């Protein structure tokens, strides 16, 4: 995943500080007029993310929330039509709920990390806070009237979610597996007794 601080976050997230009003190149796409413009940013199924077992953390509630995030990313791509007015209306309608959903998901992960005394909790929480800050900055720019390129924002979100799950979340998933025990019904789970052993 690219390091956004080096390539300009606003640019990558769908905003362009340069020449906001004349339809020049924004993000990695060149906006054109009429039919050509719409064809250039037609929603692409190639951008969609299909859930795979390799994304699984082995914790149902967290896996379900990750699936929800990927569904949202796919929905963003479905609504990336090149119709600027339609994209703005869609973004305005869904972004508040999306931010709330992301915050709930992060709180869920952090609750499990605290309960299991995961040593990487503080570092992980910082990545969550930084991501929320970036998204809220994007929302603030949108509300200030800056042009939104929904495909660029969608790609930013897709890249972040996939890399976060694959690189950062996997650390707590591996930790959880090391402290979990096989219960009488055959399930691998963590209970109060398992956590108590960490202090002993």
Structural summary, described in words:
Helix 4 (60-78) runs antiparallel to helix 7 and helix 5 (84-115) packs antiparallel against helix 6 (121-143). 21% of the residues are buried. The protein has helices at 4-7, 9-12, 34-40, 60-78, 84-115, 121-143, 150-179, 192-199; strands at 181-182, 188-189. It has a two-stranded antiparallel sheet with strand order 1-2. By secondary structure, the protein is an all-alpha fold. The longest helix has 32 residues, at 84-115. The protein is elongated and about 55 Å long. It has a single domain, classed as Hemerythrin-like (Four Helix Bundle (Hemerythrin (Met), subunit A), Up-down Bundle).
Number of H- or I-type helical stretches: 8
Global shape: elongated
CATH class: Mainly Alpha
Largest sheet: 2 strands, antiparallel
Total strands: 2
Query: Which architecture name does CATH use?
Result: Up-down Bundle
Structural class category: mainly alpha
| CATH topology title | Four Helix Bundle (Hemerythrin (Met), subunit A)
The helix content is 55-70%
Taking all Cα atoms into account, the compactness measure Rg is 20 Å
Number of domains: 1
Q: How much is the average pLDDT?
A: 78
Distance between the termini: 40 Å
Strand arrangement across the biggest beta sheet: 1-2
The percentage of residues in β strands lies in under 5%
CATH superfamily: Hemerythrin-like
- The unreliable regions are 1-41
